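Lab notebook, bench 4. Continuing the backlog of folding jobs that were queued last week. Each job is logged with the same field layout so the records can be merged later without manual cleanup. Today's entry covers 2,3-bisphosphoglycerate-dependent phosphoglycerate mutase, a 206-residue chain. Filled in by technician R.K.

JOB TYPE: sequence-to-structure
TARGET: 2,3-bisphosphoglycerate-dependent phosphoglycerate mutase
LENGTH: 206
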Amino acid sequence: MDRLLVLVRHGQSEWNLKNLFTGWKDPDLTALGVSEAREGGRKLKELGLTFDVAFTSALSRAQKTCHLILEEIGQPDLPVIADQALNERDYGDLTGLNKDDARARFGEEQVHIWRRSFDIPPPGGESLKDTAERVLPYFRAEILPRVLKGERVLVAAHGNSLRALIMALEHLSGEEIIQRELATGSPIVYRLTQDGEIADKQDLAA
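JOB STATUS: finished
OUTPUT FIELD FOLLOWS
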């Protein structure tokens, strides 16, 4: 039985390019982001991978990435389920700020704490712990059961919502997962055992 789970962070967005805290705002992909998503799809096609279902967030940068990947692997009509449970971390009062401007306004140390601590949220926003508490119940209820019954599942989402999933899959601590960088548009391929443990992992970041 092929218990396949592929996670991919969306391609570069317009706000990634401008170095802005994005969160739940909805900028489009850049031309580079489109290319990254298509390249991710080509890598999956080279491995001969296809899917039974795809999940994505309520945000267009993840949805477009998902669609571009499915186009590249020849499955443009695959069912795609979108849910805000998979949205990026909400950056609260930091949303829309340039990261350099935020450091000037709040202090470099404080911004570093908000970005890189597991459980300290920015004002009005979510910590990674908060994000995990939103993402993981949805994953365990809606996505993991489908993988465990043998469906091949693609999840196109965001750096922090995917960190939450990776933390659970790889049994990482909060301190370990905040150090994990995820390349835009680059799939991570997991094959799971019947107990939901990792049997094999391929990170397709080149």
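OBSERVATION: The chain has one domain: 4-203.
SIGNED: R.K.
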